[in-house]
Amino acid sequence: MKRIFLLKGLDCPNCSAKIEKEVGELDGVQSSVVNLMKQTLTINVAPAVANTIASQIETIVHSHEPGVEVQEETIIPVTKSYLLKGLDCPNCSAKIEKEVGELDGVQSSVVNLMKQTLTINVAPAAANTIASQIETIVHSHEPDVEVSEIAQEYYIPAKKQDTNTSYNNEDKKLTIRLAIGAAIYGIGMALTVFAKVPLPVELVFLIVSYIILGGDVVWQAVRNISKGRVFDEHFLMSVSTIGAFVIGEYPEAVAVMLFYQVGEFFQSLAVERSRKSISDLMDIRPDCATVRRNGELITISPESVAIGEIIIVKPGEKIPLDGVVLDGDSMLDTRTLTGESVPRSVHKGDEALSGCMNQTGVLTIKTTKAFGESTASKIIDLVENASSRKAPTENFITTFARYYTPVVVILAAILAILPPILLGRGWTEWIRRGFVFLVVSCPCALVISIPLTFFGGIGAASKRGVLVKGSNYLEALNNVSIIVFDKTGTLTKGVFNVTDILPANGFSKEQVLEYAVQAESFSNHPIAKSILSAYGKEIDQSVISDYKEISGYGISAMAGKKKVYAGNTKLMDSEHVEYTACEKVGTKVYVAVDGQYAGCILITDEVKPDSKKAISDLKHIGVEKTVMLTGDDEKIGKAVAEELQLDEYYAQLFPDQKVEKVELLDSKKRQGSKLAFVGDGINDAPVLARADVGIAMGGLGSDAAIEAADVVLMTDEPSKLVDAIDVAKATKQIVMQNIVIALGIKSVFLILGALGIAGMWEAVFGDVGVTIIAVLNAMRILKK
To answer: 128, 216, 336, 759: which has the highest count of C-beta atoms within 10 A?
Structure first.
């Protein structure tokens, strides 16, 4: 069974990792994933323990984060109303109400005999099938009663509540507590320095401020110890500060706790700001939809709009669902979907995607997808769940911290006990060094900043129109040595155009094109459409007769009194037409009129404007080999590969042969490196799945691409791949910087503390100072 719990107020990456691990170790739990972005815990649990798991989860969460509110996410029921026309029997009404209420998924059932209505609250999963069950029940008691669903009432969207404010009530309470504790500490220190108050008075101020600042930390450490969890930051802070009191370093003890809490406060703000940055970026979910029903415009929830309904979108409104424009012209702001700042124009017949902001004109749109399947919903779901897939570096740091903390505690104990025993003196000094060692050793800087950096990297990529499904894929992009491209629709536009007309035997270019158009006018083939598009005029189809499509050859037709053939060389040969073979690269359509060769039309798929620059830039940033796979013939493949300066190409491939080529290239890659495949949708799904990193090109509106790929480039520009790798490298760079900063500075202060050179004040910087530096450094990725 899948269960989802909301962990309201969770903002600590370190605690998240611990909660995820400990819940995953409970009996009956098969998997456990904490999503810090959504503040959720998702588990798969055996039915036998499903009823008792909630209390165990709450205990684990509160052992790490007592202030976090744990509640299971409940599925919001759908309210449906039915008109029971002709119902007039109170006894039958009661039976209908009771039996409908007992159906699976129905939470409540009320029959209003006065209005002849039945109103139910039903789980979304059962909402689509409940009508037939209700009709069966009603007709079993009242066969003549007509059952029909009542259209939803006018919908007024509720005002959005900002659940991800970067400064919430908990932060305000912590700020007040820190301010009061710091003020009492400051007054005590001032009285000690300037008024020379006696030690008992100084201690009163220091102890009170310590309780205000660190009481919750000590209490949490005690609770954790009672449950067998000893080695964590609460334990380190509690032991070191209480120990400082014992050896007489009273001001330093309070200062350590004060600055530790300040560091925790900065951590909380940083996580909230990252979460809010991504939430703002993904704020593309529409509030409501204006639907035309029965000739009236009504405003309803987007979830209630069915496929095929007509919606009206005014300037300044977000498009609520994917659809096709039936009427109107406008400019759409697609920035939140694609990262493009330039608005995109839409006209009648064009696709309009949910999440885009309508800027200029009123659009009438026929919906093609339900709300849950629309582009906006899929993108939001992808970005929100990306943090659940952790990078190897994140997993390593979590494991490292698990073993690192006990080791440094043991080393601190050895440092405090062994030298006095061996030397026979100086217990106070060596104990002080042991406590300094403990304070410096806290692993907060690592376990906070590393997940935060990947978190921000995913958000930065989203801002540039690149959806990365997990930080594991973001890290994998750093190690890509081979990139394999599909040709059509990826490096080329995937749109066939007439690029040249080669007339012969006295025919003009215009005549060759006109005869070809007459022959192709009834065909739906892409080649035929490209010829019709090039002609661009009205065609009088009344003069065309005896039309025949000859499979594998071409077309024959009568245009007036002339016999026209349009097709390949096989058609010319079969009709004994003498022709001149065209040696240019592209698809050729040979045209003959009354048995005489008229000329050749050359049709090609154009290379995208930025493909060549994208390949050049990829090589510049370290990609070792670029390869193209295509089903087109050898000449076309060679021409495109040479134009784009690709390292290798393979032509005339079927989809299964593309997988074989990718496997061959994968076997030859450098050890430790990755192979990425870039394709444009459903035909490339097998290869996308086989590659180390599957990258879908032009995923905007492409369900197959979004489902199959690990990374989705939301536009048709190959250069977005350079952006994706650029963000990945920047993220990795900041991660490595934070590892070096944290371990480097801590190592120096650990040595200085062990030698007695560094005291408690230096230890504070070695812990809290390094944490704040690492967190601020991690935040830089959001500006990328």
So the answer is: 336
**Under a CB-based contact definition with an 8 Å cutoff, are residues 476 and 695 in contact?**
no
List the catalytic residue out of 11, 232, 333, 486: 486
* 3-state percent breakdown (helix, strand, coil) of the chain, nearest 5: 50, 20, 25
CA dihedral 592, 597, 599, 605 (to 10 degrees): 60
- Condensed to tens digits (0 to 9), the pLDDT of residues 540-557 reads 888 888 888 887 788 999
Q: What is the sign of the dihedral through the CA atoms of 215, 219, 225 and 231?
A: negative
3-state secondary structure (DSSP) of residue 571: helix
Q: Which residues pair with 564 in a beta bridge?
A: 557, 593
SS3 139: helix
Q: What is the pLDDT of residues 89-110, one digit of tens each?
A: 666 777 898 889 888 878 778 8
Q: Return phi, psi of residue 77, to 5°.
A: -70, 155
Residue 699 has a pLDDT of: 61
Is the CB of residue 69 less than 8 Å from the CB of residue 76?
A: no
For the segment 185-244, what is each residue's pLDDT rounded down to a tens digit?
899 888 888 888 888 888 999 999 999 998 888 888 888 788 776 777 788 788 888 888
666 belongs to the catalytic site:
no
Asked if 311 contacts 292 with a C-beta cutoff of 8 angstroms, the reply is yes
Phi and psi dihedrals of 289, rounded to 5? Answer: -135, 140
pLDDT of amino acid 387: 59
User: What is the chain's Cα-based Rg?
Assistant: 35
The alpha carbon of residue 39 and the mean position of all alpha carbons in its chain are separated, in whole angstroms, by 15
* Token digits of residue 74: 């409940």
Task: Identify the CA nearest to 383 among candidates 314, 280, 290, 519.
Answer: 280
Cβ atoms 343, 334 nearer than 8 A: yes
User: Tokens 């083939």 map to which residue?
Assistant: 525
SS3 (DSSP) at 382 = helix
Distance from C-alpha of 202 to C-alpha of 190, rounded to nearest angstrom: 10
Which residues, including other chains, have CB under 8 Å from residue 492's CB and lie 6 or more apart? 605, 606, 607, 608, 611, 640
pLDDT band at 161 (very low <50, low <70, confident <90, very high): very low
For residue 141, how many C-alpha atoms fall within 13 Å in the half-sphere facing its CB? Answer: 21
Mapped onto helix, strand or coil, the DSSP state of residue 370 is: coil
Cα–Cα–Cα angle for 696, 699, 705, rounded to 5 degrees: 55
SS in 3 state form for 588-616? EEEEEECCEEEEEEEEEEEECCCHHHHHH
Q: Which residue matches tokens 């009123």? A: 362
- Residues pairing with 367 in the sheet: 323
pLDDT in tens, 45-95: 887 887 788 889 999 998 888 888 898 876 556 778 898 987 866 667 778
